[in-house]
Amino acid sequence: MSNSNEIIEDYWPFLCVSSTPPSSKSRSYCTLFYPAVLFFVYLIGMQIVNTPDSDANCTLRITPDDERVMREFTGHLHSENRSVKAFLAIGGAGKNAEKAMSAMACEQINRRVFIRSAIEVARNYDFDGVDLDWEFPSDKIGGMNHLAYLFTELREAVVEEARQTGKSRLEISAAVYFNPDLELESSEGRRYPTEEIVNNVDFVNVLCYDYAGFWDTSRTGSLSAIYHENSPYCTSFGIRKWKEAGLPPKKMVMGLPLFGRTWKLIRDEDNNGGIGATAVGTGPEDSAQDKGCMLYRNVVTFNLDH
């Protein structure tokens, strides 16, 4: 049984609109899950726009497709179950998202314009909160400090907006690396601003996956290992580090992947194909852009066919 403290989430990519329209997703989750669920929509089609005009800097660009899908998504979701919440997720893991978020967060005026735009879009399309998905801020440009400012200023803005309008405050969430210290990701030794996260963010989506993949094709690995005796790349290690950094467990949501990583194995009678098996490259993939990666539904189909 679920209880009121549990959060069940799903990131719904904009690119899935043709295969899984908002109406089908919202109906299935409203009938399956409990009222405490928070349902996310991730709008890949939405971009941060930087222009010479300071009034337009770092605003969210809404295309006609964005507008149609957002209205359909929140409309279906709230009509089925008003207690299920829709969040507007902004950012992503790609280089373009990192560049846009960095350019926005590095200047106070840019952050102010972005925050105003995010709140406006969230309200106009009936979202219940905003999710900041700036996953790997670089300390080369003071990224973690800028992220701290962004959390603080966003919280102040949504509190003030709620006071002025009399509406319920927009909630804030954030997607973060599985470990608060990004030393495993790079040599920069970056650490998330845990104090600002605790003080300003309602809950955190910890990315407890991608511990193995195309970046190391010498051996197979576990994409989302819960425990690992000889490696820090596992969920138990990351969650423990977040707790030690001061993030309360009640604010953590453990992220799980709905995709798989693939490897091409060496043909050897001693190679049993399990975790740690010798490999020589990536295996089947959904597309050239998704190197060694397959969505869950395609993993199922592949296994049935082979």
UniProtKB/TrEMBL annotation:
Pfam families to which the protein is assigned, alphabetical: Glyco_hydro_18
GO CC, any one term: extracellular region
InterPro entries: Chitinase_II/V-like_cat (IPR011583), Chitinase_insertion_sf (IPR029070), GH (IPR017853), Glyco_hydro18_cat (IPR001223), Glyco_hydro_18_chit_AS (IPR001579), Glycosyl_Hydrlase_18 (IPR050314)
Record bears the keyword Hydrolase: yes
Keywords: Glycosidase, Hydrolase
GO biological process, one term: chitin catabolic process
Domain of life: Eukaryota
Key word Zinc present: no
Classification via SUPFAM superfamilies: (Trans)glycosidases
A GO MF term: chitinase activity
Residue ranges annotated for the GH18 domain, each copy included: 1-306
PANTHER family reported for this sequence: CHITINASE, CHITINASE 12-RELATED
Family: Belongs to the glycosyl hydrolase 18 family.
Name of the protein in its database record: GH18 domain-containing protein
Source organism of the structure: Papaver nudicaule
Lineage per the UniProt record: Eukaryota, Viridiplantae, Streptophyta, Embryophyta, Tracheophyta
